[in-house]
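User: Is it possible to get a 3D structure for a protein together with its bound compound? The compound here is manganese (II) ion. I've pasted both below.
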Amino acid sequence: MTADISDLLSAIHNAERSYDVSLIVKAYEFAKTCHSDQKRLSGEPYITHPLSVALILLDLGMDSSSIAAGLLHDVIEDTKTSKQNICETFGEDIAFLVDGATKLKNIPLHTQEEQQIENLRKMLLAMSQDIRVIIIKLADRLHNMRTADAWPEQKRRDKSLETMEIYAPLAQRLGMTAIKEELEDISFRYLDPIAYDEITEVLKQKRELTRSINFGNKTYIEYIEQKVYDKVKDMVSRVKISGRIKSHYGIYRKVYMKGKGWDEVFDIYAIRIIVNTVLECYSILGAMHDMFTPIPNRFKDYISTPKPNMYQSLHTTVIAADGIPFEIQIRTFEMHYVAEYGIAAHWKYKQGVEKNDDLAKKVAWIRHIIELQQEAKNTEDIMNSIKTDIGSEEVFVFTPNGEVKSLPVGSTIIDFAYLIHSEIGHKMIGGKINGKIAPIETKLKTNQVVEIITTKSASHGPSRNWLNIVKTTEAKNKIKSWFKKEKRPENIRGGINELKKELLRNDINLDESEFEEFFKPIATRCQFNSVEDFYAAIGYGGVIISKIMPNIKKLYFKYNKNESRPKFVFQPNNFSSSTGVVVEGIDHCLVSLAKCCNPIPGNNIVGFITRGSGVSVHKTNCQNVLNAQKDEAKIDRFIPVYWQMSSNNRYISTLHILAVNNDEMIFQTTSTLSKLNVPISELNVKFLENENIKIDVSIFIHHVSELKEVIWQLKKLNGVISIDTKS
Ligand code: MN
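Assistant: Yes, that's possible. Here is the predicted structure of the complex:
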């Protein structure tokens, strides 16, 4: 659609802030006159381009000067007008912006690349003085790319490449995500149309696949949106929920460049939840983790630790009952504006109130890039340094021989050692930064000279703790493979110990003697040849227990329900056993006292499951019992039994239950107790600030085993975090 001045004026009219309309109209008239004899490649009058750029700037919330400069941005470059002319008519401020956005002409340079570098240098310098220059350039580039179909093929590809390498990363560094993603997707479509279409096609298929009757004939994302809305609408005063699908280029990077499977991209679908306050963000996070199953290690708190480009949000990845993972982003309305518009939000929200100094701090990295590339020797180095510095969040360090190495931001001396060579890493005992000894976990900064101190001792190796310190996958893999190779017995032992710890934490009661039988199927499912290999893998960090814990739990409950749950089951209230003996795990069964030893209350007793006449109760020291216990075939038929407590002999015990506050929790607790015939004497509920609740319930019970059973049954309830009997 071709832009017209009336579009701009009505957009200005609808904007939330006031603009200097006469200045903008004056700039429009000026530009229109200058460009009057020019047409775009599409055949439209040239002025439509600056007008569209001005509209983009307005949409970003930029000020009147920026919009005027947007209208004038091509005047110096493409017409006979000079910077001086603009300065006389519009003042220095606008003249600076227009000049900053203007390419250098007639520079005596040979190659196109040198030209590109000089222009880039000029642009960076101008933007380091006034950041609005780059915002205007980005708006200019965005409109050019939106209309690039009119360009010849070669120009399209050149501009796409430049956009991908320089403008999109610049937008990213400035936090202007919406523009960054659009620039990337357009450029990507020109650079690799086949991959682009493939992704479109897969997304289309996925959309149809997930449109299902279960979701009320909605697509998956619409269904999740609705579900989330229903859950949070009463929690907060104002909420906006939107579903989104990862950008084409975002998918391309993961699937095509990083070689991940489509199923490994957990954030193809995302739900954004936007609310008023930070507090609400966190309470909604709790509600989401309550509602869906969170994937471990995918939670990121960019609210307490914003990204360098000012982005703030809570991120978590969860799985709904239907098994499709999706990302949830939770943020406030203000954070959302910054997330979409980045540095431009400065003009929208602060409207110039914030001091320019603060803004300068936020873009200090631009100065750094300029300084860095001034030291570089040849054009190729300059280009590379600009591209890498803008594009990726990397640090560049030197070996003592002056070789440059690049590592992701946050890398340590250990990462550096492994980058040089595995053996250097394995034999490292210390490191130096710029000639001074530094702790090996020190994070590296650009321009440091890093030296590794190694030992010749053959027995030296990495520490397991390094796995928690290193940043790069490369170092992690090399350390893991060292442990895998060098330390098998230790790994097996370590793996078993770690499993024990985790099982304990999860209330899974499994003796080490049962391990082999229990973990065999899990080891097989994880593609290990033996259970030992499986333990060893846990030991060296190749298998993360928390990832397989859900399976372990599932298996355990299955295994446990069927056979050996060593628990007490209640006698119904009307139970009156003539024998006065209670059999663990069995209701209403036929019980007889064995004639051979005639046990009486107070004796230590054990039950034996007879063929056809129920459980016979013996003294534990009965000779028949001792004989039968030597018999392999009979050993499984013994079962614990207790003397029944007198029904008058109840006592009160108080349980302190900490649980996630889902609506059902209190009801579930009381109904579980009532099913177990446990009378309640008192119940207190406290709602905690972190969305949890504490239920203190006093109950009448007969026996400690009964109490244990109550706790066991309550712990099975969804949402129970812990139960204890001490206050
Ligand atoms: Mn332009």
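Residues 49, 73-74, 140 surround manganese (II) ion (CB under 6 Å). Residues 562-576 have pLDDT under 50 and may be disordered.
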